[in-house]
Design brief:
Distance between the termini: 14 Å
Largest sheet: 7 strands, parallel
Number of helices: 15
Structural class: alpha/beta
Order of helices and strands: EHEHEHHEHEHEHEEHHEHEHEHEHHH
Helix content: 40-55%
Number of strands: 12
Oligomer: single chain
Length: 385
């Protein structure tokens, strides 16, 4: 039996690295039996994923493929045709290795929160062949549903949601194949590494993305809220600020807004950026664990804070952040919806974090063992026919 992960993508998004790594540890099977389609094998090998999973190169990562796709899009002026070409030539060769006894895990966490995409394509290919498929550690809101998504949700053999709000959405659709476990990344242990010099004083880690801010600068409405927060920290506390990029992909690279902020405050030695290229996910988790507080846009960065009992605010804009916080019984002040917020809400939440930090830490310390312990049942659930 083989396990296929066609939507691993690559560790340029440290969340993708976290999902793949934690999945291999949960299933506890030899790396020869778990295959991941990678857009960047060199990077994934640097991050150490090749020790746990068999990486297979994606055709979409080759220059020839990119040129053909661009020509097709230019000549036809049809994005749909170009996308169909991409999916067929990227995923079909990988999926063809599957036999009846194999299982495809559709990973990616929030892939179903966006437009119709390769989750649908890969699932429908395997469904047509009668091969077992599992939507793995997913989040999806009612507002994200489309007719195509609803159809493919009905075609998954099993669905593993990572929080109860998504489970409620899916059971309300009449789906019977739904179960809830924590995100698989909760099981990962921090990997000790050298800390930046800024840790000579107490540190607040901050992770930002263009998704929550609305751009790669602080000129947006929510960017101005971030700016007020940073200036309050610098003026009213003794905390050093460490900016921690977590996604390094073109088009959503956290380093861009991180560098913008560092340049904006270049005369202040209390604010610096982490060179995240040098660290794998578990090393980033260690760095986050050593922060006194954390504020994060990326779900798997926030999961690192939660799992290490670091008091944190999630800059959530979708069901995933709200659902995970709800299941951990965290107060509403620790979620700030970057798409729907009131003036100074972020600053108010930060003040709450300062005043309640130790209470939050103790709550997480009491909650985490049982919460993470739920993941011990995932493998038996998956392999139970």
């Amino acid at each position: 039996m083989k396990i296929l992960l066609p939507i691993h993508l690559d560790g340029g998004n440290r969340g993708c690295e976290a999902i793949t790594l934690s999945t291999t540890k949960l299933l506890n099977i030899p790396k020869e039996q778990i295959m991941a389609l990678s857009n960047n094998i060199q990077l994934d090998t640097y991050l150490g994923l090749n020790k746990y999973v068999t990486l297979q190169a994606s055709p979409a990562s080759t220059l020839g493929f990119k040129i053909k796709r661009k020509l097709l899009k230019t000549l036809t002026q049809n994005e749909l045709k170009a996308t169909s070409y991409t999916y067929q030539h990227t995923y079909l060769p990988f999926l063809k290795q599957a036999s009846k006894n194999d299982i495809m895990l559709s990973t990616g966490g929030d892939m179903m929160c966006y437009g119709n995409n390769q989750v649908i394509y890969t699932n429908e290919v395997m469904f047509s062949k009668g091969i077992k498929t599992v939507l793995w550690g997913c989040s999806i809101g009612e507002e994200n549903l489309t007719p195509e998504k609803i159809k493919t949700l009905q075609h998954f053999s099993k669905i593993y949601t990572r929080e109860s709000l998504t489970a409620e959405v899916l059971t309300n659709l009449g789906l019977k194949n739904v179960v809830t476990f924590p995100d698989p990344a909760f099981i990962l242990e921090p990997q000790v590494c050298q800390l930046p010099d800024i840790f000579t004083e107490d540190v607040i880690g901050i992770n930002l993305s263009n998704y929550v801010v609305g751009d790669y600068n602080l000129d947006t409405n929510f960017g101005k809220e971030i700016k007020k927060l940073i200036e309050y920290i610098l003026q009213e506390t003794k905390l050093n600020i460490l900016l921690i990029p977590h996604v390094l992909w073109k088009g959503q690279d956290d380093r861009i807004i991180t560098n913008y902020i560092v340049n904006h405050y270049k005369n202040n030695s209390r604010i610096t950026a982490l060179n995240s290229d040098l660290y794998n996910y578990c090393q980033l988790r260690y760095i986050i664990s050593r922060c006194k507080y954390f504020i994060g846009a990326r779900t798997h960065a926030v999961i690192s804070a939660y799992s290490t009992c670091t008091p944190a605010i999630a800059l959530g804009y979708s069901i995933k952040s709200k659902g995970i916080a709800k299941d951990l019984n965290l107060p509403k002040e620790l979620i700030v919806d970057s798409k729907n917020y009131t003036k100074d809400e972020l600053l108010t939440s930060f003040k709450y974090l300062l005043n309640s930090g130790e209470k939050i830490r103790k709550h997480l310390q009491n909650t985490m063992p049982e919460y993470i312990g739920q993941l011990s049942n995932v493998a038996s659930w998956l392999f139970n026919q």
